[in-house]
Amino acid sequence: MKEMPNVVECPRDLLLAGGFPLKGNWRSDFFAAPHPIVLELGCGKGEYTVGLATLRPDANFIGIDIKGARMYTGARQALDRNIPNAAFLRTEIELIDHFFTSGEVSEIWITFPDPQMKKVNKRLTSTRFLNSYRRIMPPQGVVNLKTDSPFLFEYTRRLAELNGLEILDLSTDLHGEGRTDATTAIKTFYESQWLSRGKTIKYISFRIGSSPLSEPDVSDLDKDDYRAIPRFNPNEEIKPNPKYDSIS
Questions:
Q1: Which of 68, 42, 21 shows the shortest CA–CA distance to 147?
Q2: Which residue among the candidates 13, 29, 58, 114 is catalytic per the annotation?
Q3: DSSP letters along 201-225, please?
Q4: Which sign does the torsion angle of CA 104, 153, 54, 75 carry?
Q5: With b meaning 16 or more CB within 10 Å and e meaning fewer, what string describes 55-64?
Q6: pLDDT(1) > 80
Q7: Which backbone phi and psi does 51 adopt, to 5 degrees?
Q8: How far is CA 11 from CA 3, 8, 68, 102, in A?
Q9: DSSP secondary structure code for residue 25 in this structure
Q10: Ramachandran angles phi, psi of 4, nearest 5°
Q11: In 3D, which of 140, 68, 129 has the Cα closest to residue 105?
């Protein structure tokens, strides 16, 4: 994968020591056209990165994940299909502000992350991560979340409302509403698995804003009553997850 021209890697020690040469220069030095940059965080197999890049040739898309074996699928598809506005960055999400400069990213997609019901600082829509995104996005930048998790969806909705973040779109049953928007109709492998098990897909889109952020109270929220789809055997039955008996 290291030889793929649409995949970027940078060892953590070198990144922190000397800076990243494409930081602030993605549009001029990497992509064929200087279009706005959109990220997919935790891109997995890259279905959304490739799908969005195909639908929106007026933007440049970068899928980010630490698991190279997963993103290889999307990177290979983008090369085979000659999609010049799709690329992949192998790194930890916590480090993204080392790869992009202020205002360089216009939009972020977060597709089916771990809801992290016990660990607020690991939730990809927590104030910790939103503040990180703000370091690379303008206040009008947009964050999109697609999730099967009722807990994560409601947490994110409450966070946006508490902090006065402009909600652009919201759905508690994205595929059951008869929508025609092609960007939200893209289905990842695991999204299809959830749908086949009767789970509804939730979606929220909001502007990142610039005012100080506070965490919402979620002490009254019900926890998800099932565990994640096993990564190595997605056909395994989804069972209740009794370990989520408290939230901290």
A1: 42
A2: 114
A3: PEEEEEE---S---PPP-TTPPPPS
A4: positive
A5: ebeebbbbbb
A6: no
A7: -65, -45
A8: 15, 10, 13, 22
A9: T
A10: -70, 125
A11: 140
Most distant CA pair in the chain: distance in Å? Answer: 50
Alpha carbons 54 and 98: distance in angstroms, whole number = 27
Which pTM does this prediction carry? Answer: 0.90
pLDDT interval class at 166 (50, 70, 90): very high
Distances in whole angstroms, Cα of residue 22 to Cα of each of 15, 19, 30, 65, 218: 11, 9, 8, 18, 39
Would you tell me how many other CB atoms lie within 10 Å of the CB of residue 69? 9
Exposure class string for 11-38: b at 16+ Cβ within 10 A, else e: eeeebeeeebebebebbeebbeeebebb
Please tell me whether residue 35 adopts helix, strand or coil conformation: coil
Q: Is 114 a catalytic residue?
A: yes
Residue 169 identity: D
Tokens encoding 1: 């994968």
Whether the CB-CB separation of 170 and 206 falls below 8 Å is answered with no
- For residue 87, give both structure tokens: 């690329």
With vertex at residue 232, the alpha carbon angle to CA 111 and CA 50, rounded to the nearest 5 degrees, is 35
pLDDT in tens, 19-48: 899 999 999 999 999 999 999 999 999 999
